[in-house]
User: Fold this.
Amino acid sequence: MAIKQSKSNLKEIQSRRDYRKLRNRTNQTISASTHTRRQQRLKRKEERKRFKKPKRRIFPIWLRIIIVLICCVVALAGGLMVGFGIIGNGHPTDALKIETWQHIIDFVIKD
Assistant:
């Protein structure tokens, strides 16, 4: 840790021994002030914990997961309908029929 040396400190330092004394004195004040700051910070943290309101979730986690999965299925179906109906010039509801997918699989597997 570097010691900031002001003009008054430079006048005090005549030898290495004086420098060590000054350094020890500043380290003691720094460690004492750090110790009290640490205690104050821990005290504030404990008070925050004590007065903190418990979180109440509106939707439980398992319900969120189910909602996300349902949204994914709806997005997939919407994408299929847009791709088959608008881009592919067919009827959008045909994209959800099993016969359409069986026909596509037959084209892919056909030797």
About this structure: The two ends are 78 Å apart (CA to CA). Residues 47 and 111 are 74 Å apart (CA to CA).
